[in-house]
């Protein structure tokens, strides 16, 4: 048996750091949580090159005593736990005492700190777990931690970091979430010397959401507050009309800590049942407060997974909180045309100027017996003049009647030509394929086309068939998908992780017919889309693509197929859409001319056959 060795402290620290410090974003998360635990009301986060070379977190919290500085960077050293009982009711964001030790093990750290009672601050430097300096320093109350050159001593970890922009977006996502969970703390985020986010710390969640995600997302939310069996739920939920294509904008915070909760997610979506379309998901920023001893947060290294003492209480509180808010606040929009006209006038400087001019004009005073006194006196028309006028009027009427008859004749002729065109439609073989004559009987439920052909009845799912046709068309065009420039570019708000994924795949999206670029602060702008798409489909499709690109590790060809498939699904005719007889016959002709179109991209059949004998057996005509 191999000899068992006790690992050196430095190696043990590096191993432990692997659980806590995965990337710059995890460092920022730990440092911000420590600042909030220290009672900070103002926080500044600054990074450079995605945090790989430089990270700084400054707070106005309580600071660290000089005699405690060295202990703060030792493993399992914490001010938040004193005995075993404290583990049963953890109320702080951090508690394990691993963060600072892990960060110092894989980077170069400078810390400036001062408590309220200290006359002078303290400067402490540590690199790769080795102390470099402990000295006096001039600084305000609070703590500033600077982390440089992460993974400088572990090159194997360094090569797994992504591009600077990707790591920077991950940090931005962490800052967003902590800002949402603590609206009472003013947070400032600086990225490569540019200010990206500022929250005012006024405690209003709606204000933070506006700062983080912008006006459009914020306007689609309503407030909710509810308490049941000791569980308090409050925050913001989306209106059904503002539902999204995925769950990326669902944020749950438990006692101020971001968590992933299947129970809360299920309760949220159950409350929206029958209120939003299938395949759409509500957005939310919900805070859940429970007694500290009724939840175990010591489950996951990242502390995002928790165990509840009673899951049903959580489900019920979230469900009824959301349900009540929807019933009370999801009202039909009242359209006030007078206000709209007033707003238009205010927005249009020319209209405003004209209105001001009219206000300056003095209107004439009202006169009594106006019609009796103001009508001009005129002589009656002479007989010859009257005859001429009557003759001109008669000629005018005859001309109008003649034009009307000619127009009716032309419309009748065009109608007959269209009928003849529909009557003579015969299946036109494509790809030199011979197809038998068919007869379109009609449609069932405006979804399934009924066709009679050679002793068979064909039932065609028009959406599935059309989706496959468009999918094959996009694949055939591959390198040169036809795009259309949008008259008005569309902006789409995403989570920072989705935003980063879209920007990393700009070229892939361009190849698919989409021109999507950075609009700043988690928003992308769409300028071009495939010709077949309608404007109403674009927002939801971009959200879907962002979620897919974030989570997919598939090769490029598979990603392209997914994008083509979803584009085709959005663009295809939908079940329930009305279709003319001429369109049905043309559609069936094209489908039957291409034997390869038998399944939609989801794998569902596009056509079901039933022979005459099968039908007659059902009616007992034959045995």
Summarize this entry quickly.
With 623 residues, the protein is α+β, with helices and mostly antiparallel strands.
Q: How would you characterize this protein structure?
A:
Helices cover 40% and strands 22% of the residues. It contains 21 helices and 22 strands. The strands form 5 sheets. The protein has an 8-stranded mixed sheet with strand order 5-4-3-6-2-1-7-8. A hairpin with a 3-residue loop joins strand 16 and strand 17. The longest helix has 41 residues. The termini are far apart.
Identify the strand order in the major beta sheet. 5-4-3-6-2-1-7-8
Q: What is the architecture of the largest domain at the second tier of CATH?
A: 2-Layer Sandwich
Q: What is the C-alpha radius of gyration, as a whole number of Å?
A: 35 Å
Number of helices: 21
Question: What's the CATH H-level superfamily name of the largest domain?
Answer: Histidine kinase-like ATPase, C-terminal domain
CATH fold node name of the largest domain: Heat Shock Protein 90
Question: How many β-strands, per DSSP?
Answer: 22
Return the domain count: 3
Average residue pLDDT: 82
How much strand? 15-25%
Helicity range of the residues? 40-55%
Cα distance spanning the termini? 78 Å
Main beta sheet: 8 strands, mixed
**Secondary structural class:** alpha+beta
What is the approximate shape?
Answer: elongated
| CATH classification class of the largest domain | Alpha Beta
Contiguous runs where pLDDT drops below 50 for at least 5 residues:
354-384, 420-433
């Amino acid at each position: 048996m191999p000899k068992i060795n006790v690992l050196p402290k430095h190696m043990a620290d590096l191993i432990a750091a692997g659980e806590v410090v995965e990337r710059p974003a995890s460092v920022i998360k730990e440092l911000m949580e420590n600042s909030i635990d220290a009672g900070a009301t103002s926080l500044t986060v600054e990074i450079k090159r995605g945090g790989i070379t430089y990270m700084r977190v400054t707070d106005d919290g309580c600071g660290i005593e000089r005699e405690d500085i060295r202990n703060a960077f030792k493993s399992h050293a914490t001010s938040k736990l004193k005995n075993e009982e404290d583990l049963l009711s953890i109320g702080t964001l951090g508690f394990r005492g691993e963060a600072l030790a892990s960060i110092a093990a894989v980077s170069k750290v400078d810390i400036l700190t001062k408590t309220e009672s200290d006359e002078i601050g303290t400067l402490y430097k540590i690199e790769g777990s080795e102390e470099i300096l402990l000295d006096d320093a001039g600084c305000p109350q609070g703590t500033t931690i600077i982390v440089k050159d992460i993974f400088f001593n572990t090159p194997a970890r360094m090569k797994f970091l992504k591009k600077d922009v990707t790591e920077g977006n991950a940090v931005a996502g962490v800052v967003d979430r902590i800002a949402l969970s603590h609206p009472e703390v003013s947070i400032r985020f600086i990225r490569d010397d540019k200010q990206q986010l500022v929250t005012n710390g006024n405690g209003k969640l709606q204000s933070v959401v506006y700062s983080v995600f912008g006006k459009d997302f914020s306007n689609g939310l309503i407030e909710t507050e509810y308490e049941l069996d000791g569980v308090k739920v409050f925050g913001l939920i989306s209106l059904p009309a503002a539902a999204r294509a995925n769950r990326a904008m669902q944020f749950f915070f438990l006692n101020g800590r971001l968590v992933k909760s299947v129970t809360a997610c299920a309760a949220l979506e159950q409350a929206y049942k029958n209120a939003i379309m299938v395949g759409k998901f509500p957005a939310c920023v919900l805070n859940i407060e429970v007694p500290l001893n009724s939840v175990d947060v010591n489950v996951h290294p990242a502390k995002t997974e928790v165990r509840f003492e009673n899951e049903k209480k959580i489900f019920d509180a979230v469900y009824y909180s959301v349900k009540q808010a929807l019933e009370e606040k999801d009202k039909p929009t009242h359209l006030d045309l007078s206000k709209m006209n007033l707003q238009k006038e205010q927005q249009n400087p020319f209209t405003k100027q004209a209105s001001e001019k009219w206000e300056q004009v003095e209107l004439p005073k009202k006169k009594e017996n106006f019609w009796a006194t103001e009508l001009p006196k005129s002589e009656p028309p002479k007989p010859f003049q009257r005859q001429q006028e009557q003759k001109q009027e008669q000629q005018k009427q005859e001309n109008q009647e003649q034009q009307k008859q000619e127009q009716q004749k032309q419309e009748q002729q065009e109608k007959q030509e269209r009928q003849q065109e529909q009557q003579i439609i015969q299946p036109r073989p494509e790809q030199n394929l011979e197809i038998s004559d068919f007869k379109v009987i009609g449609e069932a439920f405006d979804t399934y086309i009924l066709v009679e052909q050679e002793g068979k009845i064909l039932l065609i799912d028009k959406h599935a068939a059309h989706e496959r046709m468009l999918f094959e068309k996009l694949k055939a065009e591959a390198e040169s998908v036809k795009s259309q420039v949008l008259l008005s570019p569309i902006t789409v708000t995403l989570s920072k992780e989705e935003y980063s994924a879209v920007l990393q795949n700009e070229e892939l999206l361009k190849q698919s017919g989409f021109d999507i670029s950075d609009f700043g602060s988690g928003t992308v702008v769409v300028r071009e889309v495939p010709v077949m798409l309608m404007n109403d489909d674009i927002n939801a499709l971009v959200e879907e693509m962002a979620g897919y690109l974030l989570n997919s590790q598939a090769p490029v060809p598979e990603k392209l197929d997914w994008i083509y498939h979803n584009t085709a699904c959005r663009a295809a005719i939908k079940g329930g859409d009305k279709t003319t007889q001429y369109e049905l016959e043309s559609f069936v002709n094209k489908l039957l001319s291409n034997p390869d179109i038998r399944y939609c991209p989801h794998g569902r059949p596009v056509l079901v056959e039933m022979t005459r004998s099968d039908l007659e057996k059902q009616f007992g005509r034959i045995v």
